[in-house]
Amino acid sequence: MGSSNLQGREVIFEFTQFGHIVKVTAMDTKSRTEISIQGPSSTAQSILQTNALKRLEYVLKKKGIIKA
Asked: Is the pTM of this model over 0.85?
């Protein structure tokens, strides 16, 4: 994972395509926190995964689960 705040935490990703849209779900297994984002199916999987990871990090910080 690219983020130092999530280092040592297991994150599970799920990619589901609906026509021209891809839904990306990321879940932090330790806190069982889950987020979802959507993007065009033409977007590279690595970019969608990075964006989902950033959103998960934001939510975990907001909940006080990880340090800001």
From this structure: yes
